[in-house]
Amino acid sequence: MSICVLLCKCLHLNAHVNMQWTAVVYAALMIGSSICSVLGNLVLLLVVLLNRSLQTDTWGLTLSFCLCDLALGISTIPFGVHNSLFQVKSYPSKSATCKGSAFLFLLLQLASIHSLTWATVDKFTEICFALSYPVIFTAYRAKIILAIVWVYSILTAALPLFGFGSYVYSETKFLCVPNFKPSSIAFNMLFMVVGIIIPIVLMCSMYGYIVHIARNQVRRGTFVCNEDHCFYVPASNYFKSSIVMVTTTVCLLVCWLPYIVICFYETLTGKESPQPASAVATWLVLFTSALNPWINSMTQTRYRAALRKTLNKIQQMFEYPRKNSLSQCMTIQPRRESNSFSSPAPSVPPALQTNNEPQQDLTLV
Predict the structure, then answer these.
(1) CB–CB of 70/43 below 8 Å?
(2) Which residue, 123, 83, 25, 283, is CA-closest to 291?
(3) Dist. CA 327–CA 334, nearest whole Å
(4) Cα(308)–Cα(305) distance, integer angstroms
(5) What's the whole-model pTM score?
(6) Which of 41, 57, 49 is CA-nearest to residue 118?
(7) Which of 27, 258, 268, 338 could be a cystine partner for 281, CB 3.0 to 4.6 Å?
């Protein structure tokens, strides 16, 4: 009997130690994600705002998911770090803190992924329907799309506050999230299928079709013409584009599939998923806020060119005061000591100068 009790205590102690290690690793990963998310999205925001060439009719879509990911890095991720480090076990069922954080998490998550989806649709249309693109995506239609995305996200995130679904604190995720239980299966299916699965499938399909087009272009070669001349587009350009699209698709699937599987598992079975798996899946979803500005924007040539231009502007801003001070120092010459009794030589007008004295060349190079 004593052996069984001792064994149970050892197992309980081992489980407690594993939970502590999971919380520490989770907090470290989330801190890194928060820093990367804030820095990456601030860089993208700065590049877009300082370069008017990027402010197209549909730039609001990029601005939307950039602001959502930035807000996730500032609000939701630090909340998860606090809960994991301080070993928060639960929040009151009607806690405004828990419901508010869960509402914000779901709102920003939905708005980010749907804005990103429509930004991908915009990119897809620009590549595959280049001639009719200016007619398809106008500034007015982009504003309508953004309004629909945010209205849908707000309404969906607000449903649990009115009884359709519920928000609870998940000890395995260290966050307040939708209640993934069989009692909330209707809301969970609506949230998972319409809010996450359909956008991810659409993005992966569009990226796959773009890669298919790129492969066909490589096989037959491409000439692009403008008003002046035609030039051959090398196959390496399409190869690089294909690599970017495949990488984006893989990142989407790797970051979202574990979370989707765990949510369906908990909803259909009513059981809690293992804490390490649930924590890693939640971190991967939030880590997309750090990946989005790089794999969806900075991989494009125009964004990289704009980033270099912005960095040059910032460098010039810091170098100008230094150059100005150096030029002022160079213009200040020491006074020559002169004899008080000597008088300056009278200047001779140029017209009276003789040919014996060569004139000085004043040309500045």
Answers:
(1) no
(2) 283
(3) 15
(4) 5
(5) 0.77
(6) 57
(7) 258
Cα–Cα dist 312/333, whole Å? 33
The CA distances from residue 362 to 215, 327, 359, 365, in Å, are 62, 21, 9, 10
Residues 2-39: pLDDT tens digits? 544 333 443 343 444 455 777 888 899 999 999 999 99
The residue with tokens 């294909």 is 242
d(CA 162, CA 50): 42
Q: How confident is the model at residue 310 (pLDDT cuts 50, 70, 90)?
A: confident
Q: Is the pLDDT of residue 214 over 60?
A: yes
What is the per-residue DSSP string for 58-80? Answer: THHHHHHHHHHHHHHHHTHHHHH
CA distance 93 to 329: 69
**Percent of the chain whose pLDDT exceeds 90:** 36
Say how far apart CA 99 and CA 92 lie, in whole Å.
10
| Of the listed ranges 41-55, 102-116, 139-153, the one predicted with least confidence | 41-55
Give the number of other CB atoms < 10 A from CB of residue 85. Answer: 16
Q: Do residues 153 and 191 touch, judged by C-beta distance below 8 A?
A: no
User: What DSSP character marks residue 358?
Assistant: P
- pLDDT reading at 217 higher than 90: no
CA dihedral 160, 120, 36, 262 (to 10 degrees): 40
Q: How many residues does the chain have?
A: 365
